[in-house]
Amino acid sequence: MPQVELSIRAGRDAETIRTLIGAVTEAVSSTLVVNRSSVRVIVHEIPATHWANGGMTLFERDDIPQLAARLGEATAAGTEIARLSTEVAMTLADAYAIQLAGLDLRVAAGEVPVGLKLGFTSKEKAAQMGVDDVILGVLTSTMLIDDGGTLDTSALIHPRVEPEVAFRFAEDAGGLDLTDPDTDLLAHVTHLAPALEVIDSRYRDFSFTLADVVADNASASRYVIGPWKPLDAVRDRIGDRQVWLRVDDTVAATGSTRAILNDPLAAVPAATRLAARYGHPLPGGAVLLAGAATAAVPLPESGRVSAEVEGLGTVSMTTHRTATD
Ligand code: OOG
Ligand code: MG
């Protein structure tokens, strides 16, 4: 009784496997001149994460770039997609690998990494989105809007806006080894500024697991930086400053810089830890968005949005929507 065992990548439908079994049974029975009924076929389905060539799994080789491209296309087209977690089982490390593969695609398209952003550093934000850990994303040159500038919202899906604090690192921070425990990135923060972040999840209904949102570059979309102030000039009470988010001069949300990890400066070691662990780039003169001080509010299709941080100043932008059809 001939027995054939096949190992194939998991995920094919039952009909395809039935066809494969039929073809193998036929080939064995006619070649060996035995009854079809005596041919035994066993198909093993191996998850892409459990099959490696030269140390690289099929998931790393095929799925990570493909999922990154899917998110990149959704971002470029301004169309929402289903959460990746409905289809693939991702670890957090897989999700960061997808995020960084997405960055590679952006860089290949001419974008330049200019900084990092933290997400869920505020308990209110984490509760709003139903997650429980701080995450890191990458900011690129095309995401920056000038202070007082305009954002065309027609390219976005379901954007929200949040008030933040931004830090700027010295030029020499670019060469630092973040995996070295002696590296103290805080010593390289030179300036801070009030900031606005526009987040725009590529997932339907703005709903995701922690791994989903990490893969989606922490929902990064656009950001605006207000006037920089030297850190030394404003360091005291940095964790105790009132924050106002205004839409058309109406207060849409209010909070305190304390909402950001109890002290916004704590964002710097938090970002260092994640960047070192997952391999994020930190260019010289990079910007770090420390995370929202309030829950996010829907970005108006057209209007003026501003964030004020007590004693730090105000940052603003105007939104409008061009007709897309
Ligand atoms: C993820 C981004 C969160 C923040 O400041 O907490 C974030 C999201 O809520 O979609 O940027
Ligand atoms: Mg944010």
Fold blueprint:
Layout lengths: L2 E7 L4 H19 L7 E7 L5 E2 L2 E2 H20 L14 H17 L4 E7 L3 H7 L5 E6 L3 E2 L4 E3 L7 E10 L19 E11 L10 H6 L4 E6 L3 E2 H4 L7 E6 L2 E7 L10 H12 L8 E6 L4 E2 L4 E7 L3 E8 L5
Parallel strand pairs: 1-2, 5-15, 7-11, 8-18
Antiparallel strand pairs: 3-4, 5-6, 9-10, 9-15, 9-16, 10-11, 10-12, 13-14, 13-17, 17-18
The structure holds 2-oxoadipic acid (OOG) and magnesium ion.
The site of 2-oxoadipic acid has 14 residues, from α4, β10 and β15.
Fraction in helix: 25-40%
From the N-terminal CA to the C-terminal CA, the straight-line distance is 65 Å
Task: State the name of the first-level CATH class of the largest domain.
Answer: Alpha Beta
- What is the number of helices? 7
- The class by helix and strand makeup works out as alpha+beta
Number of domains: 2
Order of helices and strands: EHEEEHHEHEEEEEHEEHEEHEEEE
Q: What is the level-2 CATH architecture name of the largest domain? A: Alpha-Beta Complex
Describe the structure.
This protein has 325 residues and is of the alpha+beta class. The protein folds into 2 domains: 1-46, 2-Layer Sandwich (Macrophage Migration Inhibitory Factor), CATH 3.30.429; 52-320, Fumarylacetoacetase-like, C-terminal domain (Fumarylacetoacetate hydrolase, domain 2), CATH 3.90.850. It contains 7 helices and 18 strands. The chain has helices spanning 14-32, 58-77, 92-108, 123-129, 210-215, 231-234, 267-278; strands at residues 3-9, 40-46, 52-53, 56-57, 113-119, 135-140, 144-145, 150-152, 160-169, 189-199, 220-225, 229-230, 242-247, 250-256, 287-292, 297-298, 303-309, 313-320. The strands form 4 sheets. Strands 5, 6, 7, 9, 10, 11, 12, 15 and 16 form a 9-stranded mixed sheet that branches. Strand 3 (52-53) and strand 4 form a beta hairpin. Helix 2 (58-77) crosses helix 3 (92-108). The mean pLDDT is 96. It binds 2-oxoadipic acid (OOG) and magnesium ion.
